[in-house]
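[step 3/7] inverse_fold.run input=structure_tokens len=446
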């Protein structure tokens, strides 16, 4: 054991909630504050020892642009402690851990808080530029003579916008811009993330039935983990203001009564004629936060902590944006090589479920000699994955995917389950919008 080893002392998260439900009105800084305060309390950490706070976030709320600093100060971290925000789309919170890992491993820091927070419910609906220009002129108007004609134009514009909304024509120049949908559309290839999953489903021959069965399993495993209390071991109950008369203790997303028949009735969402991706076999838009305490082994020993796991390595990789869902197949071999391990050494895997088709195709790609040769430049395949070790407590199809927080959540879920099963090595990996993949290898602390 190296004293500069980077260890995970503890982690915790809020419940995850589907967009528009109980956490919809909670500011992402408040979600992050709650998770960080609970982490500090759980570990009885002296906040004066924190060297830095690093928070993943993709929504960048206008009243908390560097939300990492806002979260840190609201959680009681001292003014002297630096804090910042990182953004790598779906892997933002994995990026925060990798930043902490590098700084601790390099010897410049010893105690780092890494995590992520996201309230996707509050991502704005933007007005088209023509409407914005009218408002700009109205604010600059001098007197009623200039303002009244502009107000009349705004009224006429409102009528056209209502007509566009009623028609459902999102290409209409008067249709509002939904920022979540815009953000989930790749700027290079011009297609939505769901369309990238449709492409993988076709290329890898993944049927609608396979995807629906995978989604059903995710709900069943997540529901079982909630009932058994397993999932509660990583969740800090969240009291809802302003009266604080309601406390959320479980994720709002997993369906205990989910059935294959119900999933089969859902219509394709992205490719309505020949598609197989539905709202049921894709992850929902979600709100939530997760935090993790990282230390050097030397500092953890000095303070008397018993870490959960050691971070062995991490890796990021790029690929075609239109096939972004294969990111885990590109990044995992990098992380495994840096950890001096092979896929066969891994006992548990958390592979984020952006889409069922994306997970299935990634697993198939890692088991393909041709893919390894043509795409990865490897002499042999990455390896075969036993589905029984993947997302054993359910995944994002059931739990949700608050994009700025998921990277920390999958590592947290992984190390907690490794503790329960006494599994030596684990892999957390996910695809990243824009055509990237991220992966992290962790080792159980004996």
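[step 3/7] decode complete -> sequence:
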């Amino acid at each position: 054991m190296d004293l500069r080893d980077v260890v995970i002392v503890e982690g915790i998260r809020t419940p995850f909630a589907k967009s528009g439900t109980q956490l919809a009105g909670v500011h992402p800084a408040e979600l992050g504050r709650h998770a960080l305060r609970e982490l500090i309390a759980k570990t009885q950490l002296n906040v004066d020892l924190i060297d830095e706070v690093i928070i993943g976030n993709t929504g960048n709320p206008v009243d908390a642009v560097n939300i990492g600093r806002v979260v840190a100060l609201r959680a009681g971290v001292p003014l002297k402690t630096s804090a910042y925000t990182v953004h790598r789309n779906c892997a933002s919170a994995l990026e925060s851990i990798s930043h902490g890992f590098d700084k601790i491993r390099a010897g410049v820091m010893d105690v780092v808080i890494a995590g992520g927070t996201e309230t996707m419910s509050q991502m704005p609906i933007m007005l088209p530029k023509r409407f914005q220009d009218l408002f700009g002129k109205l604010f600059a108007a001098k007197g009623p003579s200039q303002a009244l004609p502009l107000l009349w134009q705004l009224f006429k514009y409102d009528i056209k916008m209502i007509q566009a909304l009623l028609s459902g024509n999102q290409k209409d120049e008067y249709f509002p811009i939904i920022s979540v949908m815009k953000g989930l559309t790749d700027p290079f290839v011009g297609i939505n993330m769901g369309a990238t999953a449709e492409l993988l489903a076709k290329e890898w021959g993944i049927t609608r039935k396979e995807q629906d069965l995978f989604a059903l399993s995710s709900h069943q495993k997540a529901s079982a983990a909630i009932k058994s209390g397993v999932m509660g071991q990583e969740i800090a109950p969240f009291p809802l203001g302003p009266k604080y008369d309601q406390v959320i203790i479980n994720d709002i997303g997993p369906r205990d009564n989910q059935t294959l028949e119900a999933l089969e009735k859902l219509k394709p969402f992205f490719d309505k004629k020949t598609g197989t991706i539905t709202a049921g076999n894709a992850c929902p838009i979600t709100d939530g936060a997760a935090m993790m305490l990282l230390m050097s082994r030397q500092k953890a020993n000095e303070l008397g902590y018993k870490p959960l796991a050691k971070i062995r390595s991490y890796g990021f990789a790029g690929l075609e944006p239109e096939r972004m869902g294969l990111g885990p197949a590109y990044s995992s071999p990098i992380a495994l090589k840096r950890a001096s391990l092979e896929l066969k050494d891994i006992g548990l895997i958390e592979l984020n479920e952006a889409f069922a088709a994306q997970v299935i195709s990634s697993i198939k790609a890692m088991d393909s000699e041709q893919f390894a040769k043509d795409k990865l430049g490897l002499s042999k395949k990455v390896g075969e994955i036993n589905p029984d070790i993947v997302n054993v407590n359910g995944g994002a199809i059931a739990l949700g995917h608050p994009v700025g927080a998921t990277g920390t959540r999958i590592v947290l879920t992984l190390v907690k389950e490794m503790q329960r099963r006494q599994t030596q090595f684990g892999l957390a990996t996910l695809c990243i919008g824009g055509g990237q993949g991220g992966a992290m290898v962790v080792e159980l602390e004996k």
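[step 4/7] annotate
The chain has 15 helices and 14 strands.
The chain has a mean pLDDT of 95.
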